Amino acid sequence: MDAFSQNPFALLTLIAAPAILTNATSVLALSTSNRFLRANERMRDLTTQLESANLTREHRSLLISHVNRVEKQALALLSALHGAYVSLGSFASASLISVVGAGLATMSFSWLVHAIEALALLIGFVGAGGLVWGCVHLFRATQSSMITMSEQAQFIRSRERHFEIENA
After folding, report:
1. Does the predicted TM-score (pTM) go above 0.85?
2. 3-class secondary structure, 168
3. Where are the domains of the chain?
């Protein structure tokens, strides 16, 4: 407890840091879940469009490429969710282990306290690694969305040019 009396930020850090990390990870998991559900809706929309009988070969090809990309995007989002859930579990575990360690710090089990500190730190690093993992996969999913939007925009512009030429 001597560290807490010498540094007023030590207790605040012990309490606030895990709460902030857990909250940030929860928000990330929630937004990633929403993106995953939107990818599912997009896949259903693509399925409906592909069932249309009056598609040109070019449009059908574009839709198939979108289907493939949405599938890859969903897999990246699922991987990001995995990382976020690992982080959530790790940060919650590290917080609990830290509280137990803080309680044992007043007793004469210094070897046990050091082992608990090391365990909490290790689990905290696993949580941070899960966040990085999730963010990398979210970035990949976002890139995939951007490629799909660019292809769709190019297709629309091409169709409009063709329409303008026919109606000129």
Report:
1. no
2. coil
3. 2-166
